[in-house]
Amino acid sequence: MKRMILGISVLLIFAQNGFGWTNKEFDKRIESASGKVWKQIWRCNKAANKINNKKSDPRICEKAITLIKKYPEESTSLPIAQYNAGIIYYFSKDNKIKAYENWYLSARGGHKPAQENLEILCRDDSWACK
What is the DSSP letter of 53? Predict the structure, then answer.
């Protein structure tokens, strides 16, 4: 039951962020990765989706980023965690500098929504593009 719930949650995370895997690929990831990493990625995504809630803590995503870096097989999840950290910093903490840093790293990892957010940030705040 836990695997099914965790699996559904993780699938929702990646479907939401434009990443999709076959069932076989997903099962391989669940077996090869620490459950701790996936749970933290899920917490990070959940916190980022509560952007109207000023209580979202960016440390949740920072912890996910740290855990992902410990598991090289999970490196494809890094841009998503960085993107979500940027969302929390920007909307919940009103910290555009930390949001920029995280979105920049995520965009370098090829995450399209982060690239789009950087373009918007550059258009609205010229300091971000200098």
Answer: -
Residue 11 in this model has a pLDDT that exceeds 50: no
Q: What is the pTM of this model?
A: 0.68
Cβ-contact 80, 19 below 8 angstroms: yes
User: Token pair of 108, please?
Assistant: 């370098």
Per the listing, tokens 């995280």 go with: 102
Q: Whole-angstrom distance between the N-terminal and C-terminal Cα of the chain? A: 50
Q: What is the CA radius of gyration of the chain?
A: 15
pLDDT in tens, 78-114: 999 999 999 899 888 888 899 999 999 999 999 999 9
Q: Which helix (H) or strand (E) holds 9?
A: helix 2-16
SS3 content of the chain, % helix, strand, coil (to 5): 80, 0, 20
**What single-letter amino acid sits at 25?**
E
Q: Could you give the percent of the chain with pLDDT greater than 70?
A: 70
How far are the Cα atoms of 7, 12, 20, 76, 121 from residue 117, in angstroms, in the given order? 28, 21, 21, 19, 6
The span from the CA of 38 to the CA of 63, in Å, is 12
Using alpha carbons, select from 98, 67, 73 the residue that is nearest to residue 83.
Answer: 98
